[in-house]
Amino acid sequence: MADYKKLYYKMFNAATDAEKLISQAACIMRTAQQESEETYMDADETPLRLTDKPEE
User: What is the SS3 assignment for 54?
Assistant: First the structure.
């Protein structure tokens, strides 16, 4: 007969490990987004202008 307690703990531990990895991945992505936004905001560039016709 299968040891259901052992199987349950194996699945539970895998699920909690996956949850931790997902949380870490989300944190890494949030940090990258924040750093990218800060880099963009700190850039000293002339803004682009879109026009229908060339300026004279």
Answer: coil
- What are the distances in angstroms from CA 5 to CA 12, 14, 19? 10, 14, 21
Q: What is the C-alpha separation between 30 and 6, in angstroms, rounded?
A: 36
pLDDT for the residue numbered 41: 87
Q: How far apart are CA 34 and CA 41, in angstroms?
A: 11
Over residues 4-45, the pLDDT tens digits come to 999 999 999 999 999 999 999 999 999 999 999 999 888 877
Cα 22 to Cα 13: distance, rounded to the nearest angstrom: 14
Instruction: Provide the residue type at 4 as one letter.
Output: Y
